[in-house]
Amino acid sequence: MTAAGADLFDEARIPTCWDAIAPAELTWLRLQAQWRAQVVAGTVELADVPASFCRSAIPDFPDYPVAAWWAMGFSPLPAGPAISLH
Known about the structure:
With 86 residues, the protein is mostly helical.
């Protein structure tokens, strides 16, 4: 944090309860940084990076408990028969 950021920081404004979107966004940003570091280090080719991490904007994640899984690239699928329309 910079000195200017420290002056603006107010601990009272930190939410006591996070929605499902915030952890998903933080997960996505962490994974994007890891992919970027691997590309810069030359251990991974840019073509091998999943397309969702090549974009500059954070995807719009739903306020739903599995949003963090979507941020990691997992798609939840039913284990058994499922109804497609509810």
